[in-house]
Predict the structure.
Amino acid sequence: MIPAIKILPDDLQQFTSSGYQLFILLGRHDWQFALLNKEKKILEGLLAFHCETIISEKNFESKWEALLADYPLLNKYYSSVKIVLATPEAALFPTKEFNGQEAATILNVLHGEREQVAIKTDFVPEDNLQIVYRLHSAIDKLIGQTYINAEVKHYYTGELNAVNKSATENGFFVNFFSHKFSVMVIKNGLLRLLNLYNYQQPEDVLYYLLTLAGEFDCNRQELALTISGMIDERSALYTELKKYFLNIQWAEKPGNIHYTEGFEEYPLHYFHSIFSIIS
C-alpha cells in the first residue's frame, strides 16, 4: 500500500518508539497511523493509506502484514497505542436502555448475521451513550497480537467527544474518507443521528444529506454544515455541496493539538479523524 500522506519524524536514526504514542484509525478503505511525541506533546508523524477496494476479513491479514513489513516503524513496541475502528457495523443506545446480553442479536438485526465476530462496547459518559460494534474475530486477534497493550475504541466515540453539541442548535457534521463518510445530526441542540455511509460519486453524498435534511425538518438555508476529512474546495464534491447548502464551514483544529511543519503542507481538516482520536 502506498501512502496518500506521508509525514515522518525528522530524525529516524534516533527514533525510539518508547518515546511516542501510536494512534491508529482502521476503516474499510482507509488506514491512518499517527505518532505523537510524548515528551513534547507534538504530532510528528502520519501515514495515511487509501484503498480503492474494500479491506475485508479475507484480505486484511495480507495487507496488514505487508504494511508492517514495508514500514518497520509501525511494527515496534509502543507503551501507548490507541486503535479506532471505523466500522459501520455499530449501534448507539442510551445507557438506561442498553442490555449487553442482547448486543449480538441487535447487531445481527441491523447489519445481518455474521459468525466468528468479536463484540465490543464503548461508554460515552458525556452523552450517556453505549456504542456496541463488532469486527471479525481473526482481525481482532491479529490486531491484539501486533499491539498487545492497545486501547480499542469505535470511531463514533471520538466523533461524539470532538463536537460541542450543546453549542450547536442545528447542524450536520460530515467527515469524509475515501468512499465513505460519517454524518452527525444535531437538532435543537440534541444528538439525533450518527452514522457512516458509502459513496462513489458526489451525487451519493447529496442524496443522503438532502434526505436527512428532509427527515429532520432542517432548513438548508440556515443549517450549519461542518465538513472535514478528505475533501477540498477544488473538488467536485465541494462544488456540489455549495449548490444545496449555503452555510458550509470547515471543522476547526482542536486547540490542544500541536504538530510539526510537515502537517502544514496539507489542509488541516484532512487530519480531523486523527485529531479527534488524540484530543
Q: What stands out?
A: The mean pLDDT is 93. Residues 202-215 form the longest helix (14 residues).
